[in-house]
Amino acid sequence: MAEYGRRGEEDERGPGAAHQVFVVMECLLEKLKLLSYEEEVLAKHNMKSLTRHYFVSSPYLDSNPGEQFYMFTIIAAWLINEAGRPFTEPQEYDEPNATVSNILAELRAFGVKVDFPPSKLKSGSGEFVCFVLDRLAEEALRRKGFSFKKPTYPTETTEEESVMEDDAELTLSKVEEMIEEPDDDDDEENMMDLEALKLRTTHTDAELSSKPDEILESTDDAAEWNLEVERVLPQLKVTVRTDNKDWRIHVDQMHQHRDGIKSSLKEAKSYLDKLQEDIGKTLEKVSSREKYINNQLENLIQEYRSAQAKLSEAKEQYQQASGGVTERTRVLAEISEELEKVKQEMEEKGSSMSDGAPVVKIKQSLTKLKQEIVQMDVRIGVVQHTLLQAKLKEKSNMTRDMHATNIPEPAAGPFT
């Protein structure tokens, strides 16, 4: 459908619309050369020069969408900057949709009408890519003050054709008659060229241009003149240089090809009619044989259909059964996993119960606890003994102090 739509658009635009992109690309390349893109872009990015149809999308041309899109974005950014608007140069790994949208926004800013979607530019080639670059190149040239002028064609001086006398006139009918005569074995040295004949006629006209004073009268005999003409006639062979651009030659070729096609068609038509008749007979035989085979194999076909229906039912039952088996297999796997966990726990508990290492550890702990109790008892005894000594010492000190306070005073003497 897309191909038919594309063909319809080309028919509306004209038969040469498909080739217009080639012309636009060639004009674009010339504009880029005027802007010195080799030094400004190619040398800077180390790229190769563009070919005449680099951005043209055609099945007959090699294409590299990634490289062409990158080249398109680089040249478009450079042209926008040359046109007087700042534009950041895109990188190779930038988002293509954003880059294309920015380029179209700058193109609209120049007043250019954009009536196509941005996705048309993502391929890096095609009519719209050439259109965008061409308009940007025009804006850049306009900014630099460059404009194309109308071409001036040089005036060609047409040489005046010399008028030939009746005796030296060479008509086209005579030339055709000479061409049709099959004289291939004649000497080529006796054949004259048209240019030589024209030059000779010119000299003859120059000689005859001087007007005689008297009326010239021929003194030759008519019989001798006819004999001379018959003698010289074989030497008056003229070679005609065929020009491929002459429309008469093309018309003759068209007539020849038409006659050849008609003759070939007459010969081929009989063979084609015979072939059509044979094919028709063969098709009738094949159809009758097919009907006979169908009638003979009707019972087998019915049996085959019933067997196929049974097979489909068996397949459906098998799928249902296989689905139940799959579910039960999954449940079995879960139960097996839980059973393995329980077994592992039981083994761990059984190994811990039959193992005497915990009992040994308990005994060692009790022995160590007893030793610590004995040590604590000794320390308690030492502390009690020390406390008892302190109490006894304190008691002795108190007793001594009490005795010291209860000693009687000495009696007074006679001299008091």
Verbal overview:
The protein is an all-alpha fold. The chain has a two-stranded parallel sheet. It has helices at residues 2-13, 17-34, 37-45, 65-82, 96-109, 127-143, 172-180, 194-208, 222-232, 247-296, 298-354, 357-405; strands at residues 192-193, 238-239.
Provide the succession of SSEs.
Answer: HHHHHHHEHHEHHH
Shape: elongated
β-sheet strand percentage? under 5%
Radius of gyration: 61 Å
Number of helices: 12
Backbone structural class: mainly alpha
User: In which range does the helix fraction lie?
Assistant: 55-70%
Strand order of the largest sheet: 1-2
Spans where pLDDT lies below 50 across 5 or more residues: 1-11, 158-173, 182-192
Biggest beta sheet attributes: 2 strands, parallel
The N- and C-terminal alpha carbons lie at a distance of 162 Å
Average pLDDT, to the nearest integer? 77
Q: In terms of quaternary structure, what is this?
A: single chain
Number of strands: 2
Strand and helix map with partners:
Blueprint: H1 2-13, H2 17-34, H3 37-45, H4 65-82, H5 96-109, H6 127-143, H7 172-180, E1 192-193, H8 194-208, H9 222-232, E2 238-239, H10 247-296, H11 298-354, H12 357-405
Helix pairs in contact: 2-6, 4-5, 4-6
Features:
416 residues, mainly alpha, two-stranded parallel ribbon, 12 helices, elongated
Overview in brief:
The protein is mainly α. About 65% of the residues lie in helices and about 0% in strands.
